[in-house]
From TrEMBL, chain B:
PROSITE patterns: ABC_TM1. CDD domains: TM_PBP2. Keywords: Cell membrane, Membrane, Transmembrane, Transmembrane helix, Transport. Belongs to the binding-protein-dependent transport system permease family. One of its GO terms (cellular component) is plasma membrane. Gene3D superfamilies: MetI-like (1.10.3720.10). The chain crosses the membrane at residues 63-84, 128-154, 166-198, 242-260, 296-317. Residues 1-48 are annotated as: Disordered. It is a multi-pass membrane protein. This is ABC transporter permease.
Length: 384, 326
């Protein structure tokens, strides 16, 4: 469903550098933390783009820039063709209605001094044109119902809810203005595994119901695979590999993606014994001092002289350009080669090739069925 | 995660979130949620906020109850001193100077032959008025300046921080001697003004730090992402979550302001006779302490109890508001 429609969100050359200063009275810039250093991607209507990467790679900074909480140092974020990075005042407020965020930590993202009704209803205080005054309470209750909470909880305070319920409140707040895009910054990583599945499935259901597009940021690869149509892998402020989820997970060509995937826990003990684990040497370099050329070369087992001199572009690598297979997707590596590190998921095994094939079962089957308990819960919550 | 809470009703709610039957859980949770409620009334949909939680704690704290009763008593007698003292604090009879306790004059007489009991009762008014008004002034000025500096940061914040540093460097008593000795007005206002002038940097620092902490919370970012204006962020999200430390420090400071007023009056630069103040009485009784110790002890005792009461109140409030102790 991705490539056919015009992108709703287009990010070009996004850069965020935080200046490092020294001096007490007269501040002098001595360097910069290059949190995000040239990110490009696009998001189609109704699509979910997963962004993965380890801590400190700039995922959250990208999210903050998308919702205009941080101003980019350079680059463009085009929403329906209009660059939103330099907007202010009324125009910015209008854009904010359409791009909303779900935060990582449900314990700090809800104001402890406000009731749930005030937290969700605040959107209507700020954008009074969305809902007439008398209608607001009803709307908040509808939202609570939609996210699977009892509408009677409207007068409760956040500390009276569990983590999963709080995250549902956070999602309801994000939905209040009926946005088209939701940027979810690690929305489930603070939750219990059992609750994670519920929240993910809730988000999948809401996507269909409200025709949402998601930017889904996480460091948990299996969750991203579960919800995403396309995946971008970030390393040190850049996207190093991007493609449909099956392309990335089953046919990674960038060594960093391969190393990340090889660390995913495998539930089957037999498969676990046979798989190869790629252990990277050293730590992530400091974002103040990014290596020349390929930024991954300091930890890469394939690195050669060329990697230090030439910055690899994020494009389909030359060796795959003529083949039309799942390996032919964007990968920023001079020596890209396909390597299967994760045993493929059951439904993908028979007919893997072709981008349309594997994404079907994921896009549709993945976001629904997966776990039993949630299915029953969903019915309960909608009933009550 | 829900199991971390030792709080039974929460677990009941959490259980429903896990996919159980929600309707069943709800009715149960709502009723369980109302233990001996904070205000006893309204048993259905009135859950406890953090403030009412704090109030709930305070009501069970004997330190708070005792100090609050003492303070209440002080406020009442400073508004209506004639309730418990019939005479005038300015009616003195030199013939009775330094005499001890006698019927109708339980605390005896001071060096001028004035009734110590009456003067001690009337002295409360000055102390309480100075304490409360100075604290209000300090709290308002300090939290507004500190809060704005913390919220907006930048050059204004840097300038304000340096100014507070300068004020911190002024020794309070020396500053008082210099500044107040040039003022002739014999009211409480110069003293209050001086205390506000020297006291606001302390609150300003607390407020600044607390606003900086609060503004980094995700819920502030979330409101900003919704398009909230700065004033909404400050008033609805930051202030309610940053005010607790200011309240605590201000309550504790109130006691020290009362003793500061007494100190300045003792030194002769605060209030001057014929005003009535514990500081003045302590000062005038000090030379005769061997002959008439009671004239010194009663006002000093009253001062000590008052200061202690406010500091204990501040302590109790801090315990109730500090989330880390919860």
């Amino acid at each position: 469903m991705a490539e056919t429609t015009e992108p709703i969100l287009e990010v070009r050359g996004l850069v965020k550098h935080y200046p490092l200063t020294s001096g007490i009275l007269f501040k002098k810039q001595v360097g910069a933390v290059k949190a995000v250093d040239g990110v490009d991607f696009e998001l189609a209507r109704g699509e979910t783009l997963g962004i993965v990467g380890e801590s400190g790679c700039g995922k959250s900074t990208v999210a903050k820039m998308l919702v205009n909480l941080e101003r980019p140092t350079a680059g463009e974020i085009r929403y329906k063709g209009e660059d939103i990075t330099r907007l202010s005042g009324k125009a910015l407020k209008t854009v904010r209605r359409n791009i909303q965020m779900v935060f990582q930590d449900p314990y700090t993202s809800l104001n402890p001094r406000m009731t749930v009704g005030d937290i969700i209803g605040e959107a209507y205080d700020i954008h009074p044109e969305v809902a007439p005054k008398g209608d607001r309470r009803k709307r908040v209750q509808d939202l609570l119902d939609v996210v699977g909470l009892n509408p009677e909880y409207i007068n409760r305070y956040p500390h009276q809810f569990s983590g999963g319920q709080r995250q549902r409140i956070g999602i309801a707040r994000g939905l209040a203005l009926r946005p088209e895009i939701i940027v979810a910054d690690e929305p489930v990583s603070a939750l219990d595994v059992s609750v994670q599945a519920q929240v993910i499935n809730l988000m999948g259901r809401l996507q269909d119901e409200f025709d949402l597009s998601y930017i889904f940021i996480a460091h948990d690869l299996s969750i991203v695979r579960h919800i995403s149509d396309r995946v971008g892998v970030m390393y040190l402020g850049r996207i190093v590999e991007t493609g449909r989820d099956a392309e990335i997970y089953d046919h990674p060509t960038h060594p960093y993606t391969q190393a990340l995937l090889s660390a995913v826990p495998v539930p089957d003990p037999e498969a676990r014994e046979h798989r190869e684990r790629i252990i990277l040497a050293g730590d992530v370099p400091s974002p103040t001092n990014i290596p020349s050329g390929c930024r991954f070369r300091t930890r890469c087992w394939k690195a050669q002289e060329r990697c230090a001199l030439e910055v690899p572009l994020l494009a389909v690598p030359a060796e795959f350009r003529d083949v039309s297979g799942p390996a032919a997707h964007d990968s920023a590596c001079h020596f890209a080669e396909e390597k299967q590190v994760v045993p493929p998921e059951e439904p993908d095994q028979p007919g893997a090739p072709g981008p349309a094939g594997p994404s079907g079962p994921h896009g549709a089957g993945g976001s629904h069925g997966a776990d039993g308990p949630h299915g029953s819960h969903r019915e309960d919550s909608e009933g009550g | 995660m829900p199991d971390q809470e030792p709080y039974e009703p929460e677990r009941a709610i959490a259980g429903t979130g896990m996919g159980g039957t929600m309707d069943l859980g709800t009715s149960e949770a709502v009723t369980l949620e109302q233990p001996p409620g904070p205000d006893g009334a309204d048993p259905r949909e009135k859950p406890r906020s953090l403030w009412s939680d704090a109030w709930h704690d305070l009501r069970r704290n004997p330190v708070f109850i005792i100090s609050a009763l003492v303070i209440l008593f002080l406020i009442v007698i400073s508004i209506w001193p004639s309730l418990i003292a019939s005479g005038s604090p300015l009616k003195c009879d030199l013939a009775k100077a330094q005499e001890g306790s006698q019927p109708g004059h339980p605390f005896g007489f001071n060096g001028q032959g004035c009734d110590v009991y009456t003067r001690t009762v009337y002295g409360a008014r000055t102390s309480v008025a100075v304490g409360i008004l100075a604290t209000l002034g300090v709290a308002v000025l300090g939290s507004v300046l500190g809060g704005l500096a913390g919220f907006f940061g930048g050059a204004g914040d840097a300038v304000l921080s340096r100014i507070t540093d300068i004020f911190f460097a002024i020794p309070v008593v020396l500053g008082g001697l210099v500044l107040l000795s040039v003022i002739t007005s014999n009211t409480i206002w110069p003293v209050i003004g001086f205390i506000v002038l020297l006291g606001w940097p302390q609150i300003s620092r607390i407020a600044r730090g607390s606003v900086i902490t609060a503004k980094q919370n995700d819920y502030v970012q979330a409101a900003r992402a919704l398009g909230a204006s700065n004033s909404r962020l400050l008033l609805r999200h930051i202030a309610p979550n940053a005010i607790a430390p200011v309240i605590v420090v201000a309550t504790i400071a109130l006691g020290t302001y009362i003793s500061l007023e007494a100190t300045l009056s003792f030194l002769g630069v605060g209030l001057k006779p014929p005003s009535v103040s514990w500081g003045i009485d302590i000062s005038s009784a000090a030379p005769y302490v061997r002959n008439a110790p009671h004239a010194l002890l009663w006002p000093s005792g009253a001062l000590a109890i008052t200061v202690l009461a406010f500091i204990m109140l501040g302590d109790a409030v801090r315990d109730a508001l500090d989330p880390k102790l919860r």
